[in-house]
Design a protein that fits this description.
The protein has about 240 residues and is α+β, with helices and mostly antiparallel strands. The chain has 2 domains: about 80 residues, 3-Layer(aba) Sandwich (Glutaredoxin), CATH 3.40.30; about 160 residues, Glutathione S-transferase Yfyf (Class Pi), Chain A, domain 2 (Up-down Bundle). Helices cover about 50% and strands about 5% of the residues. A 4-stranded mixed β-sheet has the order 2-1-3-4, covered by helices on one side. α1 crosses α7 and α1 packs antiparallel against α9. It binds glutathione. This is Glutathione transferase. GO terms for molecular function: glutathione transferase activity.
Length: about 240
Amino acid sequence: MSLELYLDLISPPCRAIYIFAKMNNIHFNYFAVNLLQGEQHSKEFEAISILRKVPVLREGSFILAESVPILLYLTRKFNTSIYWYPPDIHIQASIDEYMAWQYEEKSCRLGWAGISGSRGPCPCPFLPSLPLPFSLSLLTPMETNTQLFCNHFLKDKPFLVGNVISLADLMAAVELMQPSGADFDIFLGRPKLHEWLLRVEEIVGHRLFQEAHEKLLTIRNWDVSILDPSVRKKILIMIEKMTK
Ligand SMILES: N[C@@H](CCC(=O)N[C@@H](CS)C(=O)NCC(=O)O)C(=O)O
């Protein structure tokens, strides 16, 4: 049965799955869902996932949403290298802890992803009141989360759960890259964080890492007028929440 992945590489969880599948030689059919054009709301995609979000995995009648269970499913089904999610229950718990924190939307993702939403494909045209550079209120959640990431999760370790890469590092690296879509370098002035990113990138492979991030890093060239209105509205609501 063929494995299908529904992804948009502008999305961090999609990039994590894409990189993971490629690194582990997992064969899949790639279905692009263009979020900025609202394809997640199409009837065809809704028939696959009522959640209308990517990533989604489909294998025959088996459909799975949410990046964390998708990654765990792939590690188990394809018996990938043990370091991604080692059997030690304490290590697993630490990986789970990080992934749960990252996906608690009100905390971390909103901060990192919010910046790219605010300056990426939809900056000034409908946010004329938002001065550039970013207002303090937009930067605050991102700075807070980055500090927490460095001080509580990464500390002085080479990787999040010790000496080897794990699913937690992959998920964190693609998320922390998100502000780069808005030309914002979160690694600047944070040498330890930058060294950690380089370690992850080296293991992933520079070419694959760049390939996965190409869409994000060229998003500023997008024509805002082709943005789906429902997507504009969602981004605006998200930014309003953050600037309150
Ligand atoms: N917790 C979910 C998050 C999924 C998610 O929020 N996907 C976003 C892209 S990062 C999406 O598809 N958004 C489309 C929309 O909200 O319309 C996961 O980890 O898979």
